[in-house]
Amino acid sequence: MAKWCRLDENLTNDRFDCFSCRRNMCDKLLVFIYLILDCLCTPIMCLPPFIKIGAIFTEDQKNSSTEHAFVYAVDKINRDEHLLPHSKLVYDIQFVPTDDSFHASKKACFQVQHGVQAIFGPTDPILGAHIHSICDALDIPHIEARLDLDEESRELSVNLYPAQSLLNRAYQDVMSYLNWTKVAIIYEQDYGLMKLRELIRAPGRRDVELHLRQAEPATYRDVLKEIKSKEIHNLLIDTKPENMHLFLRGILQLQMNDFKFHYLFTSFDIETFDLEDFKYNFVNMTAFRIIDTEDVGVREIFKDMARFQPDGSSSPSNHSLLSLIKAEPALVYDSVHVFAVGLQTLEQSHPLKLENISCSEERPWDAGLSLVNYVNSVETKGLSGPIEFKEGKRTQFKLDLLKLKQHSLVKVGEWSPAGGVNISDNAAFFDSGTMNVTLIVITILEMPYVMHRDPPVNLTGNERYQGFCIDLLQKISDMVRFDYTIELVPDGKYGVFDYETGEWNGIVRQLMDKKADLAVGSMTINYARESVIDFTKPFMNLGISILFKVPTEKESKLFTFMHPFGRETWALVSVALIVVSVSLMLVARVSPYECPKPRPPLLRPGVEPETQPRRPPRLWPPLSRRLTLSNCVWFIFGVLLRQGSGVSPQATSTRIVGGIWWFFTLIIISSYTANLAAFLTVERMITPIENAEGLAAQTDISYGTLDSGSTMTFFRDSMIETYKKMWRFMENKKPSVFVPTYEEGIKRVLEGNYAFLMESTMLDYAVQRNCNLTQIGGLLDSKGYGIATPMGSPWRDKISLAILELQEKGEIQILYDKWWKNSADTCTRTEKGKESKASALGVDNIGGVFVVLLCGLAVAVMVAIFEFYYNSKAISKSESRTMATPQQSLCAEMAGELCFALRCRGSRQRPALKRQCSKCVPTGSSTTYMPALPAGLEPPHLQPHDIRQRRNCSIGHGYDPRDEGPPIPPPPPPSQRIRLTAAGRD
């Protein structure tokens, strides 16, 4: 049947349906009016008074909220006096079967033939692609609000539906935030896999295990049952909204409605679903919402839309507000509004020329491309939030993240293409405040993290354990609000990957098999473990260090003062002293200026000897001042010890030798003094190793790690050459250097000749309690301890937040001090204060100096005794040869000399001299004696023994017979002179 046009005076609720009635006179009249008005408006650059638009919907959308929203949008624009004041929109709606693309194309050509300037819809993705091909061929703007699976840009299309690539990115961000690592994707429609293909092949989620299943209402339950059997607790649901109630029923039937499961829906209309059966079972249901229903302006528009009737009345309609607040009606409304804004912008630039277009002629509309460009440049805000396009695709929008709670769905965050996901309520994703949840916590006995409580009598359950991790677990459970049961891991290992079997062991294996919910202990976070299980934020930072037995203190010896120089240096100094002494003596012997030779008296020729002028002869210097070998050694030794020797070089050559020796001794003594202070004030220890490099460079000291621990994994997988060398040593060492527990490793260290590579926190605990243990070097790496959970556990983020809060409050540091430093069995070390710069020197440090002093005194006494004995024996032999009287015995001579030395009898003259002087020959009278003559001036008739006697007679008057060069005495007066007839001289 033909549809007749109905046009009232205000053109308010015009429904121009006369395109199916070609012979309608009203149609001809309006077309004639359009042409006249178009000609009249062209000079003033305005739009035509009536702008025809077409809409194509599926038959199931007839009398739906989508059609209602489209009609309401046209009516609202026509009533707006500012948007298009001189033009009105006239629409035509055609309905087609859902899967009938042929009839959809025919309807579109029909609308084009009757002069529409734009086509809206359909919202079905498959039908929309066919309609777009027609619009693209004829350059007619195609305004869409549908899911577009084509990634390429469309020239004549403007799509209000968010780009699917951006939606997939939003799903990825939420899955990353929820830490989903094992996900099941359930899709219903055939194009569902293409819809989520970017999500499946996303490069940033290589660690996610995805399970794809296509389902329909008849297979919902089977698919869910399969997912449950595989222990998959995270599901991404992409089903038709009209079948959602059947899917939810399957969840209830399989009892998959507890806190372990988390469902993420791709639908924007989760608020329209009946979730009453899921609110009180703590099921995690999350979805995005494109309509901000909390906005007052948006709610007013929907309320007005619910009251709207196409005939102009305002009586309540059968469209409830809940049915209207859906994504599809809102997007259709926004598409009409965006088209109107584009027309308004076009009106300010140039006129819109109307032309007769037909699908049969395939002649494009010249003004269509310009109109699409203006619509594509629109930036506004609609019911679906901010709107902005790029190449026909919507790039600016905002999605509200909804989460099901006990009372209703609440907004817990937002997502935008620019800012990503922004969670405003972190506690909403697993609210266990009113839940009675008991978690299984596995651990390992390790001091001081987890230990048996003493005494263990009459203790059951969690009361059997104590330690740092037990206290930490209790604080976390109070904050996160869950109960727990502590169990020990069966094999007593933390977990390491075995390359031969390809399996994990220890705690990691238990968590992978979902036999426990948490793992608490000194469990290190590393890459290998993180790839198969999850870790919370680290509650303690640490590194690998070396535990070693305290090195033995260097024993103090009497001759510690000899240590500043090595043996080689002392030997070289001794050799230098001898060489320089000999060199100085030889240079002094050769140099003519060091010791001038004596000269004889000068005699004038032809003059009697008695009348010759006398000139004193040049004599040798005293023996004590000559550079003999003994004097050179004494001089060199005195200079070395910074003392004077009484010997002074005179010649230039000998002074050069002395100056060089002075410089040499300056450096030697300064170096010795500086190094002596360090050796006597700084306590030195015998430390065979200083760091990891030193440990790897030797083979005498064995070293190892904990078996099947992260430290062993670190050395096994390290690429650093030093650590690779250490691993080869540990791997090939027999017997094995790996220990099953930390206690065994500490015991081997105390036994000696073993270094234990362990984590710094455990090392610190052991050092604090045993003064025989110490840490060697610094940390070899940096890592942390964390609480382990199965992959994708919902408890991870809650516990991480609790750990961060405890760290900020200092609670973890308090627990650390409690179990590490404030315990009763803490070792007390007597360490030197940092303020003291030097320690006092004891007898054990410098006692050797006193020993040297005593030894020197003893040697001096022995030498004096030897000299005393030798002198007495020499005197006794001399008297036996020269004197006729019986000689005294050696003992009597030594006794007399000793009494003279000690002056026991007050004598001032040696006994031997006294005996000799009593036999001297008088010169003339009994009171006048002939003085002793100088050497070489004795009368020739005197025998040698007489000369000695004359010389010795003056011993008691100040003359020392040991001097070889005595000063010449003054000549006697003339009355006492003796004529030396034999020599003929005075």
From TrEMBL:
Record's subcellular location: Postsynaptic cell membrane
All copies of domain Ionotropic glutamate receptor C-terminal, residue ranges: 438-822
Entry's transmembrane regions: 29-51, 570-590, 661-682, 846-870
Residue positions binding L-glutamate: 524, 529, 710-711, 759
Keywords: Cell membrane, Disulfide bond, Glycoprotein, Ion channel, Ion transport, Ligand-gated ion channel, Membrane, Postsynaptic cell membrane, Receptor, Signal, Synapse, Transmembrane, Transmembrane helix, Transport
Domain (Ionotropic glutamate receptor L-glutamate and glycine-binding) ranges: 448-513
Region called Disordered, residue ranges: 952-986
Keyword match Transmembrane: yes
Bilayer topology annotation: Multi-pass membrane protein
One Pfam family from the record: Lig_chan
Organism superkingdom: Eukaryota
Site (Crucial to convey clamshell closure to channel opening): 689
Location (main, coarse): membrane
Cysteine disulfide partners in this protein: 771-827
CDD domains on file: PBP1_iGluR_Kainate (cd06382), PBP2_iGluR_Kainate (cd13714)
MF terms in GO: ligand-gated monoatomic ion channel activity; signaling receptor activity
Site feature Interaction with the cone snail toxin Con-ikot-ikot, where: 716
One CC-aspect GO term: postsynaptic membrane
UniProt feature, compositional bias: Pro residues: 966-975
Family: Belongs to the glutamate-gated ion channel (TC 1.A.10.1) family.
This protein's name: Glutamate receptor ionotropic, kainate 2-like
Organism for this UniProt entry: Bemisia tabaci (Sweetpotato whitefly)
Taxonomy of the source species: Eukaryota, Metazoa, Ecdysozoa, Arthropoda, Hexapoda
